[in-house]
Amino acid sequence: MKMPTPTFSALRVFLPGLLAVACLADSWGETDSVTTELIQDMPSAGVMVSFGGADYTDGWGWIRIDEEWRDIGMSFRAPSDGSFDTITLRIQKVPAGIPAGTEFKLEVFETNALGDLPDSGVLVFEGRGTLDISPDDNHLYLALKLPQKVPVSPEMIYTFLLSFVTADPSHHIIFENNIGYQNGQSWYRSEQTQGTLKALNQSDKPGLVFAIQ
What is the pTM of this model? Predict the structure, then answer.
C-alpha cells in the first residue's frame, strides 16, 4: 500500500513579546502532527504543572549527530484530573542552529509510579513536527503544541520524550534544567544506554525547566 506523502506549511510571525514558529504536517501516517512556537516568557495562564526554580543551574543536551545521540524527556505528576495539549521547555543554547524542516518525534507515556520505566507503561501520544531554531533563539521558550488534549490523572505519572528523527551535525539543542523537582525526574536514552531509558541522577532529582498546559 502506498503511504501518503507528508506536505508542509510554515508560518513565522513576529509580535511584541512573542516569536512564533509554526510548522504543520498535513499527514504523518500513524502519528499526529505537533506544532512549535518560540515565546519569550514562561507560560502562566492555564498551567497545570511547571518547574523552574530561582536560578537555572545547568543545561542538558538533546542531540543526534551521527553516532552521538541522546533522546531526553521529563516525567511529572498532575495535581488533579485534567488534560494538556502544550509542553514548554526553556532553551539555554542552540550551538549550530536547527535548519527549517528538521523533523522530531514527541512521545508521551503513562505509568503507575514515579521511577517506572516510561516505555513500560502506555503510550498515550505519539507525534512528529519540524523545527526552525537559530542561535539567536537562545534563552527563549520552545512550546510544543499537540493536536489534541491528553487526559491526565493525579494517580498516574506522565513522561514526555523528545527525539530527532535523523542525524545531522546541527541536531543539538541544550535545554535548561534545575534541581529540586520532587514529582518527576529527567529521562534519557542514548548510544551509551544502548537505547534503554534511564533516569538522570535520581538522587539529585534534576529536572528540565518546563510547563504543562
Answer: 0.83
